[in-house]
Amino acid sequence: MEAVTQGTGFHAEVVARLDAGPSSRPERVVHDLDGARSAVSPEQLSDAGRLLWEALRRTVPVVSGADAVLGLDAGGIVPALAVSMASGLPYKLAWKVRVPLPGAVHFVEGHANRPNVFAYGIAPGHGYVLVDDEVTTGITLVNLAQALRRHGARPVAAVCLAEDTRYQARSILEEAGLPLVSLTRIGQDG
Fold it and tell me: How sure is the predictor about 54, in pLDDT bands with cuts at 50, 70 and 90?
């Protein structure tokens, strides 16, 4: 199952995961910015960031009040950098490593082999644009949004490169008060 976004040429597809553990999803979304199929040029990275930021500004006008971009380990790192460069917002990264740093926010990525994720230096009152490479069920981003709110921070919106529409993540995120912007959609209505 694959999708190519018309006008951008951005390609993403669902492939089988050969090393999936018992709690992992049996498939993975691969896309043009993950470097799996071919090397990624700086222009491709820049273009994706610009397209995501422009779509986010059109769709979620309150994004202008965001203080930072927050990318998820590991797939969200590259798109978080792209959105940060396009928007001029600083970026932060959430890691699957627990260290003694201030402003720690813990959340769970339930389908991962290492489910515990930590964002550090989260400031109460600050707004964050949450970024991942792909969204399938939306549960990880909902978990992150809830953890940020408990800490007094504001999740402003979620951004991803590829949205797998088979699991209705968009409606789950919207119910949690988190609008979703994606560069491409894969699945039944992709």
Answer: very high
Q: Are 34 and 76 in contact (CB under 8 A)?
A: no
Q: Give CA–CA dist 152/135, Å, rounded.
A: 24
For the chain, helix, strand, coil in percent to 5 are 30, 30, 40
Question: CB of 79 within 8 A of CB of 33?
Answer: yes
**Residue 88: burial class (beta carbons within 10 Å; 0-12, 13-18, 19+):** exposed
Q: Is 58 helix (H, G, I), strand (E, B) or coil?
A: helix
10 Å CB burial of residue 26 (0-12, 13-18, 19+) is exposed
Strands (E), the chain: 2-4, 11-16, 27-31, 68-72, 91-95, 105-108, 116-119, 127-135, 154-164, 180-186
101 Cβ neighbours under 8 A, 6+ residues apart: 120, 121
Q: What is the pLDDT of residues 141-155, one digit of tens each?
A: 999 999 999 999 999
Tell me the whole-structure pTM to 2 decimals.
Answer: 0.93
